[in-house]
Structure formats: structure tokens, C-alpha cells
Amino acid sequence: MSDWPCGLSTGCYYRTPILEALPRVRDGGFTLIEVCSFPAHLDYHNRGQVEAAAAAIRDLGIVANSMHAPFADHIDISSGDRPQRENSVRELCLASDAAAALGCRYLVLHPGPEMAGRPTPENWYWRMQNAAESLNHVADRCRELGIILLLENMLPHLLFGHASDMLWLLGAIRGTGVGTCLDTGHAALSGDMPTVVHKLSGHLQMLHVNDNLGQYDDHLPPGDGHIDWLSLICQLNRQRFQGPLILELAGVGTPDEIMERARRARDFLADLSRRAAVEC
Q: How far, rounded to the nearest angstrom, does the alpha carbon of residue 39 sit from its chain's CA centroid?
């Protein structure tokens, strides 16, 4: 049976300040987390707030596996507008500093813009080149800080929404030590799920684990949607994947309801892993 660590993204409590959310996460039985950078949850610009969160993480006996870098319309490392691109890189480097202060091992980043619509073929290449050049600077900062930059596959209607985009970008980044985080919900919507683990296997460091019904990025608990989880776990086993599974669930309902879904998802994955040891 695979013994992958299962953690929880604090993004399910993105409306709650992180100092209030952390005890609830620990009391729910999760000691491995990904830190959400939503401003109402954690303002990574505020060094005092970051240091207070780092102290709380230590005091509660929690391990900060990763931090999700900020994503917003104004953050676009592929933009043709140089000032916007440079400002985006500065924001991501600030987030890298916060991740290091929190004791994170990884910084997970959406490499493309959040605006809907893939670029035209004429624009695709220069956007990819701009993203690669920007990421060289962010990756350099991460290496200086001793953390690992991970690129996350995005939704299929966005740039970097397919494994082929991710592989092109990984090849265009100069430095080594940049990996990937597989978002299962995004991969399912893009149609990449049957082959994405194999394609990213040499770079895959962790998973964002969530389910959907095949239409929207629902961030449901695994087992509540249409993803074939047994097939995915068998793929991970075949590739000898060793990283953590981070539950990235919707923040819908009361805090207790959110935590109940997270615990149920963790149990589902553990049971399925035992089944996969027999059936794969």
C-alpha cells in the first residue's frame, strides 16, 4: 500500500484569518498543510502577520508543506506589458519570501493568467516565452530561499491548461529544480487524466486533490464527483510517486461541515490506497 502523506489546503477556510483556521485544522487531525495566500486569510505583504502564522504553525505541531502563490487578474507573468510582467514577478517573489518564513518546502504557482480564453496561435509562443523568462527570476529567488517552485496545471480554457503546455514551459526554464503540482480537478476537465501522471512523472512532486462533476471546477471531496480515483492511484503507484496529497476543497458550508468533508476525503483516499495495493 502507498503511504502518501495527506494534508489540507487552508484555502477551504479562505474567508477566515489563518490564526483562527490553524487550530481548527489541527483539531481536525491534519498536521500537514498548504497555506492559502488569499488576503483575508493571510496577507503575505504583512511580515508581522506572516511571522505570527509561522509561530502558530510551529506551536501547533503542524508542518507547512507548501504555500499557494497568489493569483489574480493583475498577476500575469506572460503579459506583453513589461511593467505588468515585472510587477507580477515582484509579487511572486514576495510570496516566495513568505513561504520561506512559514517553513514551507514548496511554492505552488499558477504559471498563466487567470483571464478566460487561450491565446491565438500567433500570441501563444511569445506568451510562453514571457512566462518562461519570468519564472526564471522566481525560480532563482526560490533557490536562494531553499524552497522548490512547483507549477500547477490550470483549467483547460486557460494558458497552461494542458500537459503539453506545462512540458514546453519546463523545457524553457533555464534552471533545474522546478517541478509540478498536479491538480486532479483541472486535469479531469482538460481530458488529460488518463496520461498526465506519466507525462509529468519526472517532474511531479505533489498533488492538489479534488473532484468535480465534469463541467466546473467544483473542488469536491474525492469520491463525490466523476474522477476515476482507482485508476489515478494505480498510475501514481506505477510511477512510484512519493509526494504528498493535499486536499484542496471548496469552502462551502460551516467550518465544521468543511472539516467533516476533509476527514471523509482523507479516509476515502486511505481506503482506496489499500484497495489499489490489491487491484492495481
A: 17
DSSP secondary structure string, 46-80?
A: -HHHHHHHHHHHHHTT-EEEEEEPP--TT--TT-S
Q: CA separation (Å) from 35 to 50, 95, 210, 226, 240?
A: 11, 11, 16, 27, 26
Q: Are 155 and 189 within 8 A, CB to CB?
A: yes
What is the domain extent for residue 44?
6-279
What is the average pLDDT across 18-25? 98
Residue-wise pLDDT for 200-236, tens only, equals 999 999 999 999 999 999 999 999 999 999 999 999 9
Q: What is the mean pLDDT of the chain?
A: 94
* 89 CA to centre of own chain: 18
CA atoms of 35 and 23, how far apart (whole Å): 14
Whats the size of the chain, residue-wise?
Answer: 280
Instruction: Count up the domains in the chain and report the number.
Output: 1
Helix (H, G, I), strand (E, B) or coil at 15: coil
- 126 within a domain of the structure (yes/no): yes
Report whether pLDDT(1) > 50.
no
Inside any domain, residue 1: no
Mean pLDDT of the 78-107 span? 96
Please tell me the pTM assigned to this model: 0.95
Question: Does residue 237 lie in a domain region?
Answer: yes
For 66, the enclosing helix (H) or strand (E) is: strand 63-68
